[in-house]
Amino acid sequence: MRKHTDTRATYTESEAHELLIQTIRAEGTQSDFARKHQLTNGYVCDLVAHRRGLSERILEILGMERTVTVTYRKKGGI
Question: Which of 52, 63, 51 lies closest to 19, judged by CA?
């Protein structure tokens, strides 16, 4: 089983999702990944198909955590 070696500090949601796909592939099939992490096959399928977001449990499996950045702007483009 091959582990990912990307060591960047932050990822976009798309990049984190791609990291999940790489992790699933490294562990074999979607079913292998689901069984190893006690997830349902349907849930993993939904993750791969972008029908579900990355949950705290999935982030934990990936060794990641969610961070939120807040920005502000003027209303109405003023």
Answer: 63
Please name the residues in contact with 48: beta carbons below 8 A apart, sequence gap of 6 or more. Answer: 20, 21, 24, 30
Q: How far apart are CA 13 and CA 36, in angstroms?
A: 24
**pLDDT tens for the 78 residues of the chain, in order:** 445 556 678 999 999 999 999 999 999 999 999 999 999 999 999 999 999 999 999 999 999 999 988 999 899 866
Q: Which residues of 34-47 are buried (b: 16+ CB within 10 A; e: fewer)?
A: beebebeeebbeeb
pLDDT of 2: 43
Q: Where are the alpha helices (DSSP H) in 1-78?
A: 13-26, 30-36, 41-48, 56-62
Tell me the torsion sign for CA atoms 13, 18, 23, 25: positive
